[in-house]
Write a structure and sequence with these properties.
Number of strands of chain A: 11
Order of helices and strands of chain A: EEEEEEEEEEE
Number of helices of chain B: 0
Order of helices and strands of chain B: EEEEEEEEEEE
Oligomer: heterodimer
Mean pLDDT of chain B: 94
Helix content of chain B: under 10%
Low-confidence stretches of chain B: none
Shape of chain B: globular
Number of strands of chain B: 11
Distance between the termini of chain A: 37 Å
Number of helices of chain A: 0
Radius of gyration of chain A: 13 Å
Radius of gyration of chain B: 13 Å
Chain lengths: ~110, ~110
């Protein structure tokens, strides 16, 4: 079951903040976040497990709301290096199947 | 040292041909995957192997056949290539469920 990401795209100026949402129609076992730059492979950012935890990676953090079956990725004080396509991946159970959303393209301009 | 390596990086071939993509990981992971990324960047899981055993086989045409000779290698063979097979194919590996995926650099397959 593919998660739904929003927005599809966002354009930021350096220093601005953004939120990317990822929602599922089914209860989630875990949520992953990855970033892919043009012509490169997706790179792991963070994983959130059941329990509603929040994690951070430098000025990028994420939350996981089990009840709402959704996760949000927060880009704080964005830098040029944050540009890329962000994917959330979800596991419904611990069955090795990570399904990805359609991606959110983030463009950070100077 | 490259963690997950795929070969070739580019593959251009004609319809009807058969081709293979190889993948190797040196991370000691137990699980390996094949994902297909289409022109709209959608990443779709195709197969997953855990300790050489096939555990996920999504609705992929029979023309696609994965093979895992050992847990460090996962190859993908494609028979009778079609135009719609054109995409970037990513190999990935992980320790298992709820573990980060490490992706290879991808193989861009173009079928003409």
């Amino acid at each position: 079951q593919q998660p739904v990401q929003s927005p599809q795209a966002v354009i930021l100026r350096e220093g601005e903040d953004a939120v990317i949402n990822c929602s599922s129609s089914k209860a989630l076992y875990s949520v992953h976040w990855y970033r892919q730059k043009h012509g490169e492979a997706p790179v792991f950012l963070m994983i959130l497990l059941k329990g509603g935890e929040q994690k951070g990676h430098e000025k990028i953090s994420a939350s996981f709301n089990e009840k709402k079956q959704q996760s949000s990725l927060y880009l704080t004080a964005s830098q040029l290096s944050y540009s890329g396509t962000y994917f959330c991946g979800t596991e419904i159970t611990n069955d090795y199947k990570l399904s990805f959303g359609a991606g959110t393209t983030v463009t950070v301009r100077a | 040292d490259t963690a997950v390596s795929q070969t070739p990086k580019y593959l251009v071939t004609q319809m009807g041909n058969d081709k293979s993509i190889k993948c190797e990981q040196n991370l000691g992971h137990d699980t390996m995957y094949w994902y297909k990324q289409d022109s709209k960047k959608f990443l779709k899981i195709m197969f997953s192997y855990n300790n050489k055993e096939l555990i996920i086989n999504e609705t992929v045409p029979n023309r696609f056949s994965p093979k895992s000779p050992d847990k460090a290698h996962l190859n993908l063979h494609i028979n009778s290539l079609e135009l719609g097979d054109s995409a970037v194919y990513f190999c990935a590996s992980s320790y298992g469920t709820s573990s980060p995926l490490h992706f290879g650099n991808g193989t861009r397959l173009t079928v003409t």
